[in-house]
Amino acid sequence: MTIPLTSDDGSNSHTFVHLTWHEKHIEHWIRFGRIAGEQHLDRHRRIVSFAPSSIFACVRWAGNAHGTITSRIDIVRASVPGEPCQTLPFVRPGGDILLRIAGWPKVELVLGAIDSIEAMGIEPADVAPDHWRHIHTRIVVNEPFRTYTREQHRAWLRRRGLLS
Predict the structure, then answer these.
(1) Helix, strand or coil for residue 160?
(2) Domain coverage including residue 22
(3) Which helix (H) or strand (E) holds 163?
(4) pTM here?
(5) 92 within a domain of the structure (yes/no)
(6) Is residue 32 domain-resident?
(7) Mapping DSSP to helix (H, G, I), strand (E, B) and coil, where does residue 59 land?
């Protein structure tokens, strides 16, 4: 689906992520999240959008003939119009950063955590935001993090239901 970058009145409530894919050079991709719209700019670039408050993960990797130069994963709650937000490269206007990890060994830990959540049949975009913050803080200090559980997820879904 092609999405306009702004609505007729010049505003848009969505969060936009600019993605680039040049095989083995620059690779930006969405690991999870419910994409609300997509616009292809050319063979290597596209823009995806996320609805307000939705959670998504963006992986950014760059390399050269000698290997990885940089790797990063960000898990973000899309901004809500009128709320303050944190800025991120390639994300407009920004969002609530739940997890921000750099360095391939640590990025792999996060990808493994996402895989284990999916293995339980839980959509990572529906995971409690506090769990992503927990993983972030534990990895930053080189400590193990707790595994997300079905019980924790049920409790989050109930709490989220009360908040909405």
Answers:
(1) helix
(2) 15-163
(3) helix 150-163
(4) 0.91
(5) yes
(6) yes
(7) strand
